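Hi V.,

Quick status before I head out on leave. The structure for the redesign project is tokenized and pasted below; the design run finished overnight.
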């Protein structure tokens, strides 16, 4: 039986075939298929440029959106992809402590390094593989949704599938504040 969020997500998606969408969505779809991922990208009837937009379109909690935040690493100008729950802010100091000094990435840098426009950065199928970190806050959920190469395209997965698809990507704490006990236990495994 489908979960309530799956039923709502099905209603939020329109019938636009992925093959008729952007090259970036086709690239994500092909990467998911080649890795045996069971869920193909879905095309939303509205653009989901923010985590809240995506959550509203899918009828799910904003924390279930696996948002992609791109930084520019100062040392080598490499893209750093941080994937975090949509209801959490990314702590730049924590990211820098893990990967070295970072700066903001503008839209041109994001597109050139990842092949995706802001609002559609997927956790895989980048034109240049980024340094990737996954925030442990996503592991509060059994089901999450990530961008699939375009602001209208998303795909369903579990946090464990995200970790597998975005390899190599350590799961760490990159959001402000104290970790809840269940997430501290998760990181100590």
């Amino acid at each position: 039986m489908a979960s309530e969020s799956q039923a709502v997500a099905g209603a939020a998606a329109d019938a636009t075939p992925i093959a008729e969408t952007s090259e970036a969505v086709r690239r994500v779809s092909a990467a998911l298929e080649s890795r045996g991922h069971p869920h193909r990208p879905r095309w939303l009837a509205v653009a989901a440029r923010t985590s809240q937009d995506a959550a509203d379109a899918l009828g799910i909690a904003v924390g279930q959106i696996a948002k992609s935040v791109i930084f520019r690493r100062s040392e080598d100008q490499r893209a750093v992809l941080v994937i975090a729950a949509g209801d959490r802010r990314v702590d730049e100091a924590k990211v820098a402590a893990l990967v070295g000094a970072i700066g903001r990435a503008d839209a041109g840098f994001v597109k050139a390094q990842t092949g995706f426009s802001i609002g559609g950065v997927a956790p895989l199928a980048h034109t240049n593989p980024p340094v990737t970190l996954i925030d442990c806050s996503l592991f509060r959920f059994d089901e999450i949704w990530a961008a699939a190469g375009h602001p209208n395209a998303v795909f369903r997965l579990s946090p464990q599938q995200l970790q597998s698809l975005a390899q190599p990507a350590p799961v760490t704490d990159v959001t402000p504040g104290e970790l809840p006990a269940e997430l501290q236990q998760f990181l100590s495994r």
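Above is the designed sequence. The chain has seven helices and eight strands.

G. will cover questions while I'm gone.

Best,
W.
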